Protein 1
Amino acid sequence: MPEMTLIEAIRQAMDEELARDERVFIVGEDVGKRGGVFRATQGLYEKYGPKRVIDSPLAELSIVGVGIGAALYGMRPICEIQFADFIHPAFNQIVNEAAKMCYRSNGEWTVPMVIRAPYGGGIGGGLYHSQSVESFFTHVPGLKVVIPSNPEDAKGLLKAAVRDPNPVLYFEPKKGYRLIKGEVPEGEYTIPLGKAKVSRPGQDLTLITYGMTHYYALKAAEMVAAEGIETEVIDLRTLLPIDKETILQSVKKTAKALIVHEDTLTGGYGAEIAAILAEHAFMDLDAPIKRLAGPDVPAVPFSHPMQDWFMPNAQKIAAAIRELAAF
Amino acid sequence: MDVTLPEETLLEMYWIMLLSRRLDERAWALHRQGKIAFHISAIGHEAAQVGAAYAIRRGYDWIAPYYRDLTLMLALGYTPREFMLSLMGKKGDPSSGGRQMPSHWSLKRANVISHSAPVATQTSHAAGIGLAIKLRGEDKVVITTVGEGSTSQGEWYEGVNWAAVHQLPVVFIIVNNLYAISVRQEQQMAVRNAADKALGLGLPGVSADGMDFLAMYQVMKEAVERARSGGGPTIVEAKVYRITPHSSDDDDRSYRPREEVEQFKQRDPLSLARQRLEKEGLLSAQKVAELEQRAKEVVEDAVRFGESAPYPDPEEAAYPVYAEEVRHA
Ligand SMILES: Cc1ncc(C[n+]2csc(CCOP(=O)(O)OP(=O)(O)O)c2C)c(N)n1
Ligand SMILES: [Mg+2]
């Protein structure tokens, strides 16, 4: 199996889907000749031309709105939002239009569309190039929300998202674009949306996470394993719809749950997982549910000492694991 | 010279452009040396900014800027030392205390409001300030800047529309450097001049040669006077060129030919200003050398100041989320 980076896997997924289905096209800012500001679409403009890889005007609302229109007509748009932080102008189109189309038309109209956006901090991007925006959208029935943590999943999930008949938000951990490498199976495959994965088995506690923090979580699990703590790590992969079964199965086994995400704590995605556990696994728990999340400030600050203060990392996660294991 | 400005003012304008250029070049060098994480440049935009700055009453009128406005900020009294604090994410950066990326301005003492990175969000703020000025019956003016690409945002149209409907004292400057990162003007808008958008919104729209500081000054002067005297808003398009890549994260070779960049360098606004002032007998080679020396010293001092300044304490990041917490900041 060839090894590649996260961003290469994402690019390959788009390349294969463009080749497979002529209804698929890419639209976004700088996705053409520039190949995207992170080079996620590099080479695709040259290969598929300006009709399949379209440089949009600098306007996210219409990137999504035009995507919806094209999808209604039978196309399969992949919309790129340059940074998740800039998805907010398109909130109305995503939440009021894409998410509600199927329901409001009683199924006459559906929106098969993918919206890709790099998310997350730790890259010196300050308030507006670091945001985690998933929980704005996991609150919205009608949407699917996917966040991959490694190249194999990234490719399989993106291909599945393109083929999904619903609007799928696909958030990419940008700090991991070139940092996270892994083997990717050769040949055609997809990974079903809505299925979490146990990425490391363990007996002592369950760590539930996704995206960039999953990368740190595996490192933290490795660190504490040397001290005799066996952590079971769950990579959610899809946040909406959520795979309750995998989470509950694991927590019923380990009896302790730690939830980790980079997004801020209050009203963050971890709150939903905690609620599911409290509802369905209360009797199985040996310790209070623990959350490690970004602190409740408006966004990630630029200056390094303050950025580090904000960001989760393997050390902070390992400390939380130790605390929970000792309970 | 067709513009009547005192000799000292013309020289001051040149000095600010020169200082902006040398600071900017130094920022690129600091980035290459790995000493700063990010820079977004004003090189090529200096004349448009100094022309705009001198057309307003600085310290009295209000400004809603965008990230390329280093020259404008210097003209408003922002200091090179402060710029270095911002570039280096050091404590005491007046724009954000190290929270925002460099060149995301705010300077309350100069009536410069804080802006974010999502483009065109400042446009409606400018309209709102204009509305407040009008409600209070004052004679202040607001200027706001935005790149031509950013005028594709619905936000931009909404803000300008407000000002046009309510005849607010706002000058909307569109800085047209032909590119929004890699996307050329033709893929961004179907009008030939960004100022033509004014037609659909019901306000005057004027294009100026933004590489010529006096041409820009003249167009701005008229727009600002109209706004101040109750004549309503204007769109002023400054036609410039971004001589550097979009930012320190960009490589512009994939989307624009080197010959084009070279061609525009022939109209480098700093050289054009120098030629113009030399022709008027206001500048000589010796005088330019003196100014260059002074700029070098100011830039050196600013870098030393920035480098020796402390970083913010990590815990400062916890505040001030709410107004009640400002005392912690
Ligand atoms: C809403 C939003 N979308 C995308 C971006 C990313 N971005 C930053 S600058 C830029 C191009 C801006 O071009 P233009 O408005 O022409 O200004 P210029 O940089 O050329 O001065 C883009 C796409 C952003 N900052 N905000
Ligand atoms: Mg531009």
Protein 2
Amino acid sequence: MRVLKLNSVTVNYGKYSAVRQIDIEVSEGEIVVLLGANGAGKTTTFKTISGLLKPTGGTVNFEGAPINGKSPDRIVQAGIVQCAEDRKLFPQMSVQQNLMMGGYIHRSKKTQLKESLKEVYELFPILYDKRDESARLLSGGQQQMLAIGRALMAKPKLMLLDEPSIGLAPLVVEQMFTSIQHINKDGTTILLAEQNANAALSIADKGYVFENGRIVIEGTSEELFSNDEIRKAYIGA
Amino acid sequence: MSSIFTKKNTVIALIVLAFVIPFVLQNQYYLHVLTLACIWSIAVYGLNLLAGFTGYLSLAHAGFFAIGAYSLGLLTVKAELSFWLAFLVAPIITMIIGTFVGIIALRTKEHFFAIYTLCVGYIIYLIIDKWDSLTGGVRGLIGIPSPANIGPISFDTPLSQYYFVLVVTLLCILMVYRIVHSLTGRTFIAIRNSEELALSLGISTAKNKLLSFVLSTFFAGVAGALYGSFIRFIGPEISYTTIMFDFLTYLIVGGIGTLSGPIVGTFLIVLLSQNLQFLQDYRMLIFGPLLTLLIIFSPRGIVGFVLTKYHQHQRKTSAVLKDARAKEG
Ligand SMILES: Nc1ncnc2c1ncn2[C@@H]1O[C@H](COP(=O)(O)OP(=O)(O)OP(=O)(O)O)[C@@H](O)[C@H]1O
Ligand SMILES: [Mg+2]
């Protein structure tokens, strides 16, 4: 079943079009990756899906209904949660309080929140060890885990992950992608933006390649893997 | 040794001190100053909720303080309502006006918000000053009653008024404490941190900002109503920008975005300026540079400075403990 569909979406910053007439489709249970160099338009696309930016043209459909024009908090309630690339946390709150903020939309369901908290701690045991520590004291990798964990607390149907591997050591990147696969297996559809094409394509079902705000290539992971241009540009082999 | 100085004990000691101090001082004038400081601090707590915890610096706060005071004054003097009913309604009126102002003002952000609310504050001043037939204009409003008796308890002595104001102040601080430590409070902090992040967690920032704004006007209204009943004479100058910047100074010196900042800052400055009164307007020659230095070296005021030092100390001792344990094991 198709969960998300972008129909010829264009996004402008002032007069400048950062994203031009892109079409994206994500089906239930998939991991879909957006590849592209710096400034290609991945984050802009994510912000448009999550409602932080309004498209100048085209529509965004989620579960068959248009969501462009809805406010970001409504979109979270509908089931799309974004984990932004700057992995911003609440530095003055503890790790656990950060996670609880992620469960904001379920704030009245105490038992569900407890359950989600347990799941996040199972996925990232290090967060459990540091649950009472201030979030500002976490390492980069732990911060990313906390950002993802916080997004999971909202129990999204579709999770948008913007460059989760950026700035992480290779070993941590590997762990991160294993965790993402795990989250996906547990029933969350994932849309991922990445520069690390190798790692991303190895867990993704399909991908889109952005160049200067346009989608230039799309295909299944296998197709993209075997595409010479992509190998040259993003995999370096 | 250090266990005696826990947060809880310190708070209890301060409350006890506040209750016995009139007997220690035995000085009517100081009692008057302390009562006023309590009233100001309530207003500053309101400002802190919005500017400190939510990150929206409203410069209309003195205006809402005045609305609270004038509501009480007009309701008791002109509408001849009973004191307690008026005391209840005054903050509500302030909140209603606050809601309307908030809906419009919160369409702006940052310095635009500050400028916009500064204008609102000035408009409130002009309305009070020029609407002679309602507010008495520059002549002000006289004859506001003190709190009416509750059974055998009367509020006609400075001492009883001090206790009345003190109890209301403590209740207000308790309320702010509960708000800040609730999910609502953390929502405000989330908004201050990053509105975009708050939005992407599903927080309706528009609703919560308005809530914070209206809550802040509630405290301004309570403080204003107390002021009216305590001084019993009010004029348009209580809505003027000088009062606004007094509030802001108290807050910044005490510690913006901290729980004890408003009370620390207000008492410190009010008491200091009483003692430096012989310097008259030259006081500003001392306060100005001090304030500048404080903002540069401790943006979260005196309380922020103490908290930072305290946390550093704690981290050091816990690190030392860890080292010791590591050596043992
Ligand atoms: N707020 C903004 N105002 C104006 N232009 C912007 C803004 N944000 C992004 N852009 C521009 O839009 C284009 C796309 O940016 P975007 O952040 O979507 O790229 P990206 O693919 O996420 O890049 P990266 O991999 O570096 O994160 C860039 O040319 C960028 O300069
Ligand atoms: Mg980006």
